[in-house]
Amino acid sequence: MYISVSDRNGGQGGTEQARTAVPFRFAPTIVWLGVVSLFTDVSSESVAAVLPLYLTGYLGLSVIAFGVLDGINQGAGSLVRIAAGWYSDRAGRPKYVALAGYGLSATARLALLFAGGFWSLTGTITADRIGKGIRTAPRDALITVNAQPEHLARHFGVHRMLDTVGAALGPLLAAAILLLIPSGYSTVFVVSLAFAVIGVAALALFVPDLPALKLRTASGSRKAGPAPIIRWRTLHRSGLGRLLITAGLFGLLTVGDGFIYLALQDRNAFELQWFPMLYVGTNAVFLALAIPLGRLADRWGRTKVFVAGHLALLACYLLAALPFTGAGAVAGCLVLLGIFYAATDGVLTALASQLVSPERLATGIGAAQTVVAVSRMVASAGFGVLWFAVGPTAALILVGCLLALAVLASPLLLGRAKAAKVHA
């Protein structure tokens, strides 16, 4: 498959310039941002790992209610991502915009201790996801500015690797708590709050800001101006518009992890205390592959790796739907899901950052993240209804067939586009 959306590293997908002899160097700011994400993900993923069981088992909510809450978990903050990115570009203070988002999520962890019904949980999860929506684009803009252009996806891989260490530790922590205290959901929420506070403190104390992203302006001016409005015509001409359409279509066909894990648990009937370990397995694969697949994307082509990641997701759907039981089938699904995230998460952000000009950096990143978050929110809510109507097996097969068609159509959707001439 040949995908022709180019990026600023020259050639198709950055192949030419990535072959130069520029050595890769760790950037301290990116490492510190990874540490912040590590603590934050311990917090968020410890809650996410018990949420399906907490909602459907402990509180007795239906799978449709879980689908709605999982959809909120996927995309409630999506509507603020572009606004947060735009404000970050305009104010020139990405660190402090990100800090506001991390702080809101930590506050939501505190509120979770007092939420016990559908509506209170809806409000709490919404606040947490809005915090995530506020922080993501400014944080990724800081990563882009501090990264070496020739190794951009690899730098995002470093951040995502540290992020995923936390995402793996969170479910492990939740599983350990539930093994010691079988109904210890409140304890999980308290520990989650503690790690969220540590993450906010690390960002405030150790991550420097870059006023107005002044080191990366195309003109070299050290004075920030208002962030320009992004118009669809500009996006389409630069190639970002095509990327947004493709990412949105893929997002509509991305089933939430919780549904896949519930399908595996339903078929294999393992002890509920081990349910959080499914998240650990996926995150362990993501952790192992984030940097290698980022490096592959820089050398082979970022769009190619992004699309190939959805083939892994398709294989995961089919394996989860087929009548296989045992550890092998479960492990296969977790490996495929981890490959999907490693091949798409940081790679999509790297792609989007190269298809906008410097003064639109956080806004463009926020646009891509918004499209993915909104589409996945719709997918989770819709899949809950589909599961209820036809059952997990038929639902997974149907979504898998649609995803296969989307992968086949992706070369036409992406087309041949020219990247914006952005910072060198």
Q: Would you kindly provide a brief summary of this structure?
A:
With 424 residues, the chain is mainly α. The chain has helices at residues 15-18, 28-58, 63-75, 78-91, 94-112, 118-146, 152-180, 185-206, 232-238, 240-252, 257-268, 276-300, 302-321, 327-353, 361-390, 392-414.
Task: Name the CATH homologous superfamily.
Answer: MFS general substrate transporter like domains
Distance between the ends: 29 Å
Strand residue percentage: under 5%
* Series of H and E elements: HHHHHHHHHHHHHHHH
CATH topology: Growth Hormone, Chain: A
List keywords for this structure.
globular, 75% helix, disordered N terminus, 424 residues, mainly alpha, Growth Hormone, Chain: A, disordered C terminus
